Amino acid sequence: MSHAIETEDLEYRAGKRFALHGLNIHVPAGSIYGFLGPNGSGKTTTIRLLLALLRPQRGRIRVLDGEMPADAPRLLARIGFVPEQPHLDSTFTVREMLQFQAPFYRTWDARRAEDLLRQFQLDDQQVIGRMSKGQKAKLLILLALAQRGELLLLDEPTDGLDPVVRRDILFALLEYVSQYKATILISSHLVHELERICDWIGVLDDGRLLTETPMATLKNGIKRLRVKGAPPTLGDAPFVLLGRQICNGAGETWVVRDWSPEMAAYFDGIGASLEDVIDLDLEDSFVELLRASREAAGRT
Amino acid sequence: MFRAILYSQWKWSRLIVALGTVAAFVLPLVSLQGAARADRSPLEAAALLHAVQSWGTLYPLLATALGLLVAIATWAPDHRGRHIHALTLPLPRWRYVLLRFAAGATVLAGPILGIAVGALIAIAAATLPPGLHGYPVALALRFGLAVLVAYSLFFAVSAGTARTAGLILGLVAAVIVIQVFASVANLEFSVVDRLQIILVNWPGPLAVFTGRWMLIDV
Fold first, then answer.
1. A283 has a pLDDT exceeding 60
2. Does B80 touch chain A (CB under 8 A)?
């Protein structure tokens, strides 16, 4: 499998309190990769490193067919970026911003820009500083899509937007991916949103990548089990035990990762009985992953 | 690409440039207004030179103000956006800085042309007393150089981060502290004087601002 983004032991420290620890991300080419993590987990920092806005202290970043930050100018021509906070000059009108961007990108698609203007119902004479949050978000997406990049890096592009604008933006992204086979890395803490569009998920917490897996594997692989008669210590389990909680005299609740149905036989081997297997949605899976990681690290 | 950068520069600094151009055009005309008449005696010619010299102090001030304001206007929008837009454009950083510098220098052509045209009209309209000559082109060239020196200096400072500004302020503070200590210790040593000699006297980088700025002279 070829990767649009690959990082190797990426380390970055900002001040005394925050650091990325040996980040190894692999974003398959052509995928929509959801970068999930709580606020302050390092999503924005990682994206800034991928764009060469920051320089890593250690490690390697490979984006498309080049290295960041060494090949930044060449690669940036092929990357569309939507930042967390609107960064465009507020005195420009929408039309002026389109005219400013176009000469910097050889692949600039003026027709697509006009189509998206209509699709997003943006007034091209409106001054950016007077636009609503939703309109600014749409404009940023428009600019990223009109530049026809092979890779889109979207940093919480729909954060704080109403459902209608969110739907418009997600629809435009899906349409773009199906048309150009582009790769998208989209960071968010809106779990349900990522669940709808992503085919890969990376979960980040406190600068560490907790898991990186296809969406289907994550959703189907994390389960809540009701178990009775399990011994206090377990041997080699075929799954990863994320959490174990004693219920009121009615056995235990386990949260496990990498589960598959044939693993039920394991419980006979340890003299326990598996009473129930409960599916978790992505949000529950995300919360359980975070909880397990924080308990392991001695944090709450 | 340069056109796009130039347009943004024009949009950000057009008010400064327009006002600067008007001021630059008017200044030479006002400095000779009603002053240059052929019937002046040699004594009055000296008074005329004195008046022109007095007005001449405004040229370096105007050049400095224009350089400062255009340099600030050049970087202010990028600072507001934390440079993210600029840094994600697909071109090397040095090239972006060069394009921004060139765009700012280009819009400053307006006030420089304003001085040139104003000075040429002022000299053409005035009848100079014998022995006095007009130097409109030299004045415009000198003004142009002064504007570009001021712009380059402030462009470099404005391009920097808050840390750079802190370093510069720290340097200034260090000079003051050294000067105070030298005075307290009764040392025959003046840092300010030394700096003045290095920077302001010819061939120092700021020498263009000093001396007499004369539209007419002997």
1. yes
2. yes
Identify which of A73, A91, A99 has the shortest CB distance to residue B91. A73
Residue B113, both tokens? 């042309």
B94 touches chain A (CB under 8 A): no
Please tell me the distance from the alpha carbon of residue A200 to that of residue A282, in angstroms, as a whole number: 12
Between A159 and A29, the higher pLDDT residue: A29
Q: Does A55 touch chain B (CB under 8 A)?
A: no
Residue B58 in domain: yes
Instruction: Assess if residue B85 is contained within a domain.
Output: yes
B189 lies within 8 A of chain A by CB: no
| Position B174 in a domain | no
The distance of B18 to chain A (nearest Cα, Å) reads: 18
How far apart, in whole angstroms, are the C-alpha atoms of residue A50 and residue A46? 6
Q: Which residues, in sequence order, are bridge partners of residue A227?
A: A252, A274
Q: How is residue B89 annotated by DSSP?
A: S
Domain limits for position B60 = 2-161+209-217
Query: Would strands A200-205 and A208-214 be described as parallel, antiparallel, or unpaired?
Result: antiparallel
Q: Are A81 and B1 inside 8 Å of each other by CB?
A: no
C-alpha–C-alpha distance, residues A261 and A88, integer Å: 51
Structural domain count of chain B = 1
Q: Where are the beta strands (DSSP E) in A194-264?
A: 200-205, 208-214, 223-228, 240-246, 252-257
Tens-digit pLDDT profile for chain B (218 aa)?
899 999 999 999 999 999 999 999 999 998 887 665 556 555 577 778 888 888 888 999 999 999 999 999 999 888 888 888 999 999 999 999 999 999 999 999 999 999 999 999 998 888 877 788 889 999 999 999 999 999 999 999 888 877 887 888 888 888 888 888 887 787 777 777 888 888 888 888 888 888 888 888 88
Instruction: Give this complex's ipTM.
Output: 0.82
- Indicate the average pLDDT of chain A: 88
Q: Does A54 touch chain B (CB under 8 A)?
A: no
Closest residue of chain A to B89, computed from CA coordinates: A76
Domains of chain A: which residue ranges? 3-213, 223-279
Contacts of B73 in chain A (CB under 8 A): none
Nearest CA in chain B to A49: B88
The answer for residues whose C-beta is within 8 angstroms of residue A187's C-beta and 6 or more apart is A34, A35, A36, A37, A43, A44, A46, A47, A154, A155, A156
Q: What is the mean pLDDT of residues A76-94?
A: 90
Chains A, B: CB pairs < 8 Å: 54
The dihedral through the CA atoms of A18, A19, A20, A21 has a sign that is negative
Does B36 fall in a domain? yes
The per-residue pLDDT for range A31-45, each reduced to its tens digit, is 999 999 888 888 999
CA dihedral (A238, A239, A243, A248) in degrees, to 10, reads -60
Architecture of domain A3-213: 3-Layer(aba) Sandwich (3.40)
